Amino acid sequence: MDMEAMDQGTAGAVTAIDDYLQRHESKSLLRFITCGSVDDGKSTLLGRLLYDTKLLFDDQLAALEGESLRHGTQNGELDFALLVDGLSAEREQGITIDVAYRFFSTDRRKFIVADCPGHEQYTRNMATGASTADLAVVLVDARKGLLTQTRRHTYICSLLGIRHVLLAVNKMDLVGYAQSTFKRIESDYRLVAAQMGIEQVTAIPLSALRGENVSSRSQAMGWYGGPSLLEHLETVQVERATSKLGFRMPVQWVCRPNQNFRGYAGQVVAGSIAPGDEVVALPSGVRSRVARIVTADGDLPRASAGDAVAIQLEDERDISRGDVLAATASPPQVADQFAAHVLWMDQAALLPGRPYWMKIGARLVTAQVTEIKHRVDVNTQEKRPAKRLELNEVGYCNLGLDHAIAFESYEDCRELGGFILIDRQTNATVAAGTLAFALRRADNIHWQHTDVDRAARARIKGQAPACLWFTGLSGSGKSTIANAVERRLHAMGYHTYMLDGDNVRHGLNRDLGFTEEDRVENIRRVAEVARLMVDAGLIVLVSFISPFRSERNMARTLFGEGEFREVFVDTPLEVCAQRDPKGLYAKARAGQIKNFTGIDSPYERPERPELHLQTQGVSVDELAQRVIDTLLAN
Ligand SMILES: Nc1ncnc2c1ncn2[C@@H]1O[C@H](COP(=O)(O)OS(=O)(=O)O)[C@@H](OP(=O)(O)O)[C@H]1O
Ligand SMILES: Nc1ncnc2c1ncn2[C@@H]1O[C@H](COP(=O)(O)OP(=O)(O)O)[C@@H](O)[C@H]1O
Hints:
Number of strands: 28
Bound molecules: 3'-phosphate-adenosine-5'-phosphate sulfate, adenosine-5'-diphosphate
Largest sheet: 8 strands, antiparallel
Strand content: 25-35%
Number of helices: 17
Helix content: 25-40%
Shape: globular
């Protein structure tokens, strides 16, 4: 690469950026988002606004970001590039979502507008944009009035903490600039917004296409005495009450450029901090004092909310990415069970009991929705009972996490109260959510120590406890083979127990049917029971269809290294249907049984089972022996 040319180019960019920053430094910043249905004129409005302000800073800002990175690596102390690497790793996992942020500015204010393209994934992108915005421009077509989308988007904005809405009643030229139409839409909307807790609504009649009431007042609407859209954006006061919270910073990255330096990099999300202050890392509770606050431009005497810094502590501590550094005097709560709002954004429904990745702050944990309290009808605000959440539905749920986290309610702190859920199979972002409060503090429930532990229980039985997990279609041979395995093990003196779908469904799981959500719960319970039995020192044989990879993988995580063996009883559907030991396939094909696995309910084949048994033409005895060989091999 031609280094000289590159340096010159960069130097040029730096000067331009310095100029830009100086000119705009003193101005306040407004982050907003535009929402509306497909044809309401969102792009026209945004285009018009950018055109009228004649200031587009996309390129300068991209260069600015590049520059700050370069500076970060210059003095060899701090590698901020690592931070960015971390983020791009997330991008590869599909965690981040595509939202284009456009920058523009006028003489009075700087603006960042979240531009959320794409109709299909609109809700998903919108939620991302809304989570950092202070104001939403909600577009309504004057000819159509409020639509379901208008209500849905307003609700999402409200859920994600937006308290100011600019209602842009667009296409006024197409309704003859009628004041009555505008007034009707305005009052309809105020009612909806008030129901959703949004009190600051400014309604503006406009025509984005003709540029009326966008950046200048319209002659055609003399009856309107309010500001133009741009005037309002330039002057509206959106400052949130200064957060009452003390210092909080999620650790995005631990920087170790050399042996002598260890810095915890991240953005301060609340309060402020200075060298000498005592901090606690949560959830571990480790304490230390701040030695230095390092940035790309040198050390700071104090860092406050919004600053991106690396904090060096006085002593070497075991603190990692995802921990939260906080003021010791007023630390956040730590908990593992929450009440939360969840906006579901995936085609496949949210199923209670299924484990998802949860990303909150810089932390990644496993979370399950343990209960859906209710679903919210976005049109009427009514609470309705629900067993699952479908695409674009919002539910008020209880969440259970596998690890405790430091958090704030979303209302108090977006960064430590907002989260996304990620599907563990596809890595797709499937939900956005907001924490309301902790249901139970993690430190209130302790794991009770027992003097006789699992090793002691296993020892007295003279065996290594294990879980043999048989999965396969109905009639594939799970029970027959598991039964033969248990008979042999028993004869050899092993302590065993068999959990069979048909049997457990008569007792513990009597309340469950065969919908996806019931099957998820069925497997969750039986996996927990199997875990207890392994804890008791037994060899447990689990024989359930267990059709979903997610739940089988979840079951696996409950056991120790090598304790769990997945046995795939692989018999083609046609063969199972021919065997039809209980006559169920005949009934399912006749439409008398709904949701029958393999017919109108899916079976996800195991990808890496410990044992893959193809049963056709092989005797039950031989198959059972193979299971025993696998079990006793290690
Ligand atoms: N709709 C439908 N789909 C599948 N199976 C059905 C259904 N209705 C009843 N049965 C009978 O229930 C047994 C499966 O229960 P499981 O608990 O193993 O199922 S699951 O793991 O929750 O999917 C299954 O037993 P097996 O044949 O031993 O697998 C069936 O006998
Ligand atoms: N090689 C085989 N392995 C297991 N079962 C077989 C085999 N060949 C025939 N079968 C028959 O298939 C049926 C399987 O039923 P079952 O064990 O109840 O299946 P599942 O528990 O998977 O629903 C039984 O009637 C069994 O005798």
